[in-house]
């Protein structure tokens, strides 16, 4: 589907979140949930 995030973009987003030491994120609008899963896996254990 055209609305899903490509794997390369998901990896880049994960890298940015880790470099920023992000502990909280917000996802607005979910199609397949791939970007949400990528974001959740990049957060530390105490992340929200």
TrEMBL record:
Metal-binding in keyword set: yes
Gene Ontology MF terms: metal ion binding; O-methyltransferase activity; S-adenosylmethionine-dependent methyltransferase activity
Domain of life: Eukaryota
Keyword S-adenosyl-L-methionine: yes
Keyword line: Metal-binding, Methyltransferase, S-adenosyl-L-methionine, Transferase
One BP annotation, GO: methylation
Classification via InterPro entries: Cation-dep_OMT (IPR050362), SAM-dependent_MTases_sf (IPR029063), SAM_O-MeTrfase (IPR002935)
Full protein name: Caffeoyl-CoA O-methyltransferase
């Amino acid at each position: 589907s055209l609305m899903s995030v490509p794997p390369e973009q998901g990896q880049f987003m994960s890298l940015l979140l880790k470099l920023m030491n992000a502990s909280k994120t917000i996802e607005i609008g979910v199609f397949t949930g791939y970007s949400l899963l990528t974001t959740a896996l990049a957060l530390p254990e105490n992340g929200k």
